[in-house]
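Please go through the sequence and fold tokens given here and tell me how the chain folds. Record follows.
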Amino acid sequence: MKTYFVYILQCLDNLTYTGVTNNISRRFEEHQNGLNKNCFTFKRRPLKLIFHQEFNDIEQAIFFEKKIKKWSSKKKYALANGEFDLLQILSECRNASHAKYNTESD
């Protein structure tokens, strides 16, 4: 059975990069060595692998990657640090228009 990895890299400027691969060590090396000059991480090296999760299904891996790519850096760092309570707090909608914060009755 093939395995796939969703990973988060911390860049030199503390921005994050999220990707998916079937070989995490090879892919990290490619980022670290700057093989692609057009890659987001090229000018942000050195890099640090701060999170990876293994999947047996590529569809699940891609779904998870797309999901966390949309997250804020704070949420990605909370995930990477195992701060699941903080992750939940950061995930809550804080817009005034959200039903939780709307005090007007129907």
About this structure: The mean pLDDT is 91. The domain at 4-101 is CATH 3.40.1440 (GIY-YIG endonuclease). Helices lie at 24-33, 58-69, 73-80, 84-91. The chain has four helices and three strands.
